[in-house]
Amino acid sequence: xxxxxxxxxxxxxxxxxxCRAIEITDGKAKFQEDNWQHHSGGGGRxxxxxxxxxxxxxxxxxxxxxxxxxxxxxxxLKLDEKADYFATGISIVQHPISxxxxxxxxxxRYFEMSNGISWFGGGIDLTPHYVVxxxxxxxxxQLKDACDKHDFDAYKxxxxxxxxxxYIPHRQETRGVGGVFFDYLKPLxxxxxxxxxxxTKEDIFxxxxxxxxxxxxxxxxxxxxxxxIPYGEEEKTWQMLRRGRYVEFNLAWxxxxxxxxxxxxxxxxxxxxLPPVANWVYDYKPQANSLEERTLSLLKKGIDWI
Amino acid sequence: xxxxxxxxxxxxxxxxxxCRAIEITDGKAKFQEDNWQHHSGGGGRxxxxxxxxxxxxxxxxxxxxxxxxxxxxxxxLKLDEKADYFATGISIVQHPISxxxxxxxxxxRYFEMSNGISWFGGGIDLTPHYVVxxxxxxxxxQLKDACDKHDFDAYKxxxxxxxxxxYIPHRQETRGVGGVFFDYLKPLxxxxxxxxxxxTKEDIFxxxxxxxxxxxxxxxxxxxxxxxIPYGEEEKTWQMLRRGRYVEFNLAWxxxxxxxxxxxxxxxxxxxxLPPVANWVYDYKPQANSLEERTLSLLKKGIDWI
Lengths: 306, 306
Known about the structure:
Radius of gyration of chain A: 19 Å
Order of helices and strands of chain A: HEEEHEEEHHEEEHHHHEH
CATH class of chain A: Alpha Beta
Largest interface: A-B, 33 and 33 residues
Strand content of chain A: 25-35%
Oligomer: homodimer
Number of helices of chain A: 9
Number of domains of chain A: 1
Strand order of the largest sheet of chain A: 1-2-3-4-5-6-9
């Protein structure tokens, strides 16, 4: 029987594996670890990497927190009554030095309530400063392969969900080239409205594992492939503006970030997603027919990369 | 009889006066103007100053927009039925080059609905990268003087409102040393729940004018007084981190910004408030007994600066 502790232990091991893979590919920087306690119970293991050969600032965070639902959490979850909760997961964001290497984000999580409701959620999405069609296609193919091992509908559904989730309404832009996003995947036979009618807890966990384990091969490939591409001041300027958009999405629209900040989560762990430096220029317009303009034209929902 | 057009015209003139004062004190940069149309009617005059002697990036924006309430606006205003609206105001944020010069924000606004509801709102608040007691005291005294000309309770009430409004819950810090903030000041005899029991439209407008007209003398004084103070890399580093906090407040918590972004306002005018550059460092802690640490200790609600 798959327990919440099994899931949490798995996430912890996955954090180790991912950190090792990033360190090897980066070749210089090592993660610094911070262990912290949560006010209602449990805690986390935040790992931050800075000033590497390839990564400028990144985090790979594990947490397992539990306790009685606070008023804020009860409201967020729209619960009629108090119950104990258990939440565990990994969150990753990597900001590379080079504008030719994409920013990446990954999250896998499991939530369980003492009233019998439980679900999995997660996703991976890629934010290239410059969209490279070959990389975007390859990235989506890796995600499709990971999904197809479990459910031939999953990629299509979760790719669309990512397009809608990683969207910046006030810019009418997607954050990047998307990926997959899923939430409230409730195991068959458990309490609460079902989002699937056939997957057991084990089935969903196997799927989440495939997504989680796809991260390291995907990102280390993109790191190694792109880190040697030369760039100049112009590309750095563009990167700083794209990072500004990343900040705008995370602080103004990302429901995960809002949830964390509003339910008294650990601020420094949540905001590790913010870049080391970001710029804002009033009404910046890329030059006509530039790679920057082309990138903007590809930050749209509904692009079938495969 | 004071009409909405009179109020709007006044704000437009105030924009001219403030831009002139900042340009003279800066001594180098000039505001660039962008005229824009709003989708439901009216428009704005956005003015941006960059790369001056003192100001690195700042905006002084005037707008007068009108039309039928959109669904988003109706929801935001909690209106039972559709009505035409008219909104006019000025918004200002200035990010100086020197960390020794404070960031400042000012807003004055008037809102009127065809169903008879109308109100004034606004405020000024100061965000020093380094809190200088003398400047904070002087700043609050200027605001108190402006308030006291009209109502001896106003400063106390609106200072407290500013402490609560310009607050970053996830950091447990105020944005800066506060100032005054007020909203929903509804004229005597107009529709809607009254927030005051004695002020006519003319009385409130006179008060708003005093606040608006206090801006230029206040900020040009602080610009001129502090711009020549020497600083080094350490102070610049701290400034970049404080600007990060400014971004966090504006994108995650500022109701004005959220309102604008969610009701399809002009994004570039709203986000002129963001700094040209901001930094984030994981779990940055200032040195013990440093000026940075002292500043953090003063970013609290309820400090009586006068």
